[in-house]
Write a structure and sequence with these properties.
2 copies of one chain form a homodimer. Chain A has 196 residues and is mainly α. The first copy, chain A, has 9 helices and no strands. The structure holds a DNA duplex (30 and 30 nucleotides).
DNA sequence: TCTATTGTCTAGCGATGCTAGGGTCGAGTC
DNA sequence: GACTCGACCCTAGCATCGCTAGACAATAGA
């Protein structure tokens, strides 16, 4: 009857449950903030007890890391879409990417926090950096590298521009910068980085 | 005998102990990171029991906030010193301020975290913002405002430049950016913001 | 000297992340 | 079809966290 071996069925069920855990963590973080994401609540949401979580992840950090990887993939998509949809010269392109980045940070704070504010135990800027993280930076590089201008180092340019975006996103959301001038700040940044 | 009224002596002793708490929190955070700063350890360091802490502060958040205010004052001093000691035109001045800012963030991570990464319950960019915070931003504004160039809004310029510095400091220290290029990134940023 | 206030500590509450140990259920074997 | 064994999962608990209630001691004023 069963064309699927028992072992294979188990494996799939396990993988599905793992996705369920990550999805539950993400949704809980999006709705009530990361401080509401506890192992007990998470276990309750997925209909299992706490120890089950540790059969999939080494601990809460790794769960955050898994959500962060989802965030990286989505961020890469958002950036590529913005770059592809931008009309005009490099300035418009950079501006579109900047707005997309800041829009992602403001619109998906849980994902952004998992990526950049919380400790997900992920390696950055190294050889063993997970693929989605590399790809997100690659997306930034694609979208911005061409606008580096005279500088011979698009990677360096991208890093600095990215840092500026990250600073704007972080400080704005933490209430360190008045939100009403967000648009003007973005324009000033883009202007400075695309001059000449 | 006692020229000092009893009440006054008590008041001073209390104030001194409050400073002791903040100093203990800061030192503990600097030596072992903020995750090691617990109310129990703090109480042990100052030679009192936990509830004493709550006679001075509403909770751990307020203690972090007190350390953050110290950090803001020191940051303001560092920035002003850098601006005052910089020789040459606006570009050198801005460069010196940028290096000073990043040096502070890298050299006093506990203070920087208390200011910008942890929740110290402080109000930013508002009417009731504590003095030291306003002053730190004022120091940035003094040092950078003149370099805003043609833009008629030095405050906006300062905000964006500050955000870029914050992004560089945060991403570098979190391992998101390779540390060896820190100097080149700083130069690129200064160059972009002082062009023309 | 007695009283009342002020100050401090012990003990404990509800949570957190994480884990040890036992029990149940099902797959594979005679 | 009964049995064994291993994978799976849950109950219960540990250490630690921020914070607080209530008892106790020290001290200032009458």
């Amino acid at each position: 009857m069963s064309v699927m071996p028992v072992q294979e069925r188990k494996r799939r069920k396990r993988a599905q449950r793992e996705r369920l855990i990550v999805a539950a963590a993400r949704e809980l973080a999006e709705r009530q903030g990361w401080e509401a994401v506890t192992t007990r609540r998470l276990a309750e949401r997925i209909g299992y007890s706490q120890p089950v979580l540790y059969g999939h992840f080494r601990g809460k950090r790794e769960i955050i890391g898994a959500v962060a990887l989802e965030g990286a993939a989505e961020l890469a998509g958002v950036l590529r879409a913005a770059a592809a949809g931008a009309a005009g010269g490099p300035r418009e392109r950079v501006g579109a990417v900047a707005r997309a980045y800041l829009g992602f940070a403001a619109g998906s704070p849980a994902l952004y926090d998992a990526l950049f504010h919380l400790d997900g135990g992920l390696a950055f800027a190294r050889e063993d950096t997970p693929g989605p993280l590399k790809d997100a930076f690659a997306a930034l590089l694609e979208s911005l590298g061409a606008a580096a201008g005279d500088g011979p180092h698009p990677a360096l340019f991208t890093e600095v521009f990215w840092a500026a975006l990250h600073g704007l996103a972080t400080l704005t959301r933490a209430g360190r910068l008045p939100p009403e001038d967000a648009g003007r700040r973005t324009r000033l940044l883009v202007e400075r980085f695309t001059a000449l």
